[in-house]
Amino acid sequence: MACKSLRQRQIVSGDGATAKSARSAFVRAASVSLCAAILAGCTALPRSGPDDRLIANSATARLADETGNAPTYEYAAVDITKQILPFLSVDRPSSIFSTFGGGRGPSPELLIGVGDIIQITVFESQGGGLFVPDDEGSARTGNFVTFPSQRVDRRGFITVPYAGQVRALGRSLPDIEADIVSRIIDKAIEPQVTISLVERNASNATVVGDVNSPQRLVITESGDRVLDLIARSGGIQFEDYETFVTLTRRGQSGTVYYPNLIGSTRENIFTAPGDTIYVNREQRRFSAFGASGLTGEFEFDRERLFLTEAVAKAGGLLDTRADPAQVLLYRRESKSALDRMGVDFSDFSHTHQTVPTIYRINFRKPDAYFVSSKFEMRDGDVIYVSNSDSVELVKFLDIISIVTSTTAGVTGDLNAIKQNVHALPQKVD
Length: 429
Description:
With 429 residues, the chain is an alpha+beta fold. Helix content is 30%, strand content 24%.
């Protein structure tokens, strides 16, 4: 007890060395405790994005090398390894073949439409019939008669002598010929009818958008595919990797990526009358922020872009800030893809077909560059490069330096004020 009182008296009464040593020890202990507390939370320090440990510990579902803490947010956290690469979903728009079919086989038959111009010829087996008179002195070259060309009217009908009005709209030429024969079979001598198409005006398709010559085109008898009409319109204006083609037919639409249209014969389907082909440029982009060399939005500039190339486009990782083990990629991933990877959805409350997902790649591993070179980017992906822990420590020390220098400055200001007050003349009563 006496020793304790002596030590207390030495500190309080002014044993300079002992008091100074005790204060230094106290300051060191307080600094270490405060540093540990701040670094443990990391939320008090400024940074350009969420802490990687918070992301890993808060995921609803996790597929990682180590076990995470209990999640609180509904998103999945997945480490990028070679095992998950075969299950990644690819960012491709729906195909026009799956919407309309008809990619293979012969071209569809073009039917007669309003505005088409046709010409009708009627044959009889001998003269003296309804259409071929018995006239030996005539210069007729055969037992047939050809009527003047006529246009299918707005109601879809044509007019044939002694047969009346015959519906032509939506019918093939052989079908119309058989109908006319059935109407005159009792009036002519063994009649036969042939119809020739003089001008096709109803079998048109329209090509608009980012082509060199947007126009309305007549579909040929042999049949025109989507690429045929695009070529007849002068071709596309921009690069194929940023071009999409949408086909609209009778209220339905299907979109295909232009390189897929070129590479797949089944996607290059036959066109039909009334089709509209819309060619549009759509530049795919991704964003990058955090401890990367560049931040902002970046264009793909190619058909396929992989994670390694995307990180390079964003300026790589900053040596002075980045944690190579915590490079994160945000996207909405399909449930089917995550299910194939082995992600458990039992804790998810929503029933959407896509799940907010954060992928993580550890570039400290030697094989990470090979894995990331096969991880294909999708439009709208976000890359976040986390800060290293040493950067957080430097930030903390900067804050401590600012606080201590500010405290010393305030103390100096107070002393200066006291001196100035004492230097003022005393008030005379």
